[in-house]
Amino acid sequence: MRSKSMLPLLVCIAATIILAEGDVPAQENPAAAAFLKASVVLAHPRCVNCHPRGDRPLQGDDSHPHIMDVMRGPEGLGQNGLLCGTCHQEMNLPGTNMPPGAPGWQLPPKDLPMVFEKQSPRVLCEHLKDPAYNGQRSPDEIVEHVESAPVVLWGWNPGEGRTPVSVPHDEFVNNMKDWVKNGAACPE
Question: Which of 13, 66, 96, 150 could cross-link to 103 by cystine, CB 3.0-4.6 Å?
Fold first, then answer.
């Protein structure tokens, strides 16, 4: 008789387990987990400094406002006689804290600022997935950009006096590829 009285309890426990497995938190989603790992790179000063909240780029490991009152400009190339390319050449200049450089040195354009500064991993993920916010790029094109764009690769070779991105580039790219391959879900 006792086993019949436990049946409803066992049914409730089984139903709870089944429902819980269907409601997988984003952190357990492979795509969201991969993006969460990749977001550490996106939050690094090497990335944040060119993806600021405002129109003034940041610099240094502490992400302080760029000296000389440099501004983004409409195309992300600077403005008012202070174009990015005036100081930032195709490669790092030799010497501690000399102007860094890489081909394509610029900020995102003013109408598409791609803000990384002080963004949660979820917001970063949502913005990277949104073509209206990311320059009409597909997730695969985002991966291609972080894999091969010289200005992105610079983050791992930033020149004397700057801390490179701590996550190896291939690991970052693999996390981004896993994010896309597994459906590009965003972390909670």
Answer: 150
